[in-house]
Amino acid sequence: MEYSLPVKRLRMTMVLNSIDGGGSPGVIELRNDERVILATLVLTMPSFYLVGDDLVLCAPTTGFVAIEGFATLATVSDGAGNIIIDNMTVGVDMTPDQIHDYEIVLDDNSLLIGKQVTIVTATIEHG
């Protein structure tokens, strides 16, 4: 089954509206393999923009680490705390090919308490 591009874009616009529609900015929670939240980063409004049938993070987002650990996955929630997307892959993109190996690319995924972490880019692909 294959959706047309206009239908894909409409579906992804609904995802974007869900992220940004919680009454306050959405967040990305960086988590370890045990799903412990290591850092919560507040998103801009709008949080993502539509490119083709994908959503791309509007701007690099920085926050402080609350719990030390190794970030391997993430959730995206609306401002009311409702999880919109779960189990996004997280990592550091080491290749210069401009093809990201992770859905969320960090400046460093070995997180230390009190230090800043930056989401360099994030992409939500139409599945």
Features of the shown structure:
single chain, 127 residues, mainly beta, nine-stranded mixed sheet, two-stranded antiparallel sheet, 1 helix, 11 strands, 13% helix, 42% strand, globular
Fraction of residues in helices? 10-25%
User: Separation of termini?
Assistant: 11 Å
What is the total domain count? 1
* Content of β-strand: 35-45%
Number of helices: 1
Poorly predicted segments: none
Shape descriptor reads globular
Instruction: Summarize the helix and strand pattern as letters.
Output: HEEEEEEEEEEE
Largest sheet: 9 strands, mixed
Tally the beta strands.
11
Structural class by helix and strand composition: mainly beta
Mean pLDDT across the residues is 94
From the alpha carbons, calculate the radius of gyration and give it in angstroms. 14 Å
